[in-house]
Amino acid sequence: MSSRLARRPVGPARLRALLDSGQTIVAPGAFSPLAARLVEEAGFPAVYMTGFGTSASLIGRPDVGLLTMTEMAGNAGRIADCVDIPVIADADTGYGNPLNVIRTVGAFEAAGVAGIHIEDQVAPKKCGHMEGKHVIPAEEMAAKIRAAVDARAQPEFLIIARTDARAVEGLERALDRARMYLQAGADALFIEAVVNEQEAQEVVRAFPGVPLLFNWAEGGKTPPLSLARLTGLGYRIVIFPISTLLAATAGMRAVLAEIARAGTPAAALPGLPAFGEFVDFIGLPEVREAEQRYAT
After folding, report:
1. What is the pLDDT of residues 148-193, one digit of tens each?
2. Does the global pTM surpass 0.70?
3. What domains sit in the chain, N to C, each tagged with a CATH number?
4. 162 in active site
């Protein structure tokens, strides 16, 4: 098979190099391999596998802890297989205790992703911008982070510690938790659902020199700060988890409404990719090349 059909996922070293470069890594969310290819086509240096979008696309349900580790790692692997940029994946709570976290890290690393984030919510978890979250004891989460760091086969594999404690215990306690997770070996920190720009600044001041992730949650609790502002504050990774999911939903609704109204999608076709353009984008030329190469 051609190299484009049988891709080797980009390893963690690429993501580490991006972090070391000093640039802010902008990683739009992808809920499917097709969405990931569109992120890559748009020129972004990394892609984020969204748990919210994975739940919505795989089972048509909200992000409330319904998917298993193998389902999440499977989607991450399919995404990593089809792009030549690093994949950062949502690994929820690690799916259990430190022993489960060890298996989780192995599964996501084997899937070809470059890094994961693990959160300190009680299972079953909820989307970080929903109400009704609960968090586990900080010491228990620190043990999970230690297990994750010890479990990785590649030292460059990024372990991002996420705390959801801001909504449960307040910002100061969330920062205290993040310090514990950093001491446990986390490579980067993700303080979820800060509620204003001042809190975003306080996070940066609390962790000088530490890679920080900012979740630009579309419609969530966190203010929609500009990328220039986030870069100026010092955030090193910015994710946009559900922009592609919401855009795809809007697009499908529009074309379905046209079919319901007119009986065909003909009026909507000028605004859609042409069939030939689309099959070329998803790799038909590589398929044809392989067919010709191995024809008998």
Report:
1. 999 999 999 999 999 999 999 999 999 999 999 999 999 999 999 9
2. yes
3. 12-242 (3.20.20.60), 249-293 (no CATH)
4. yes
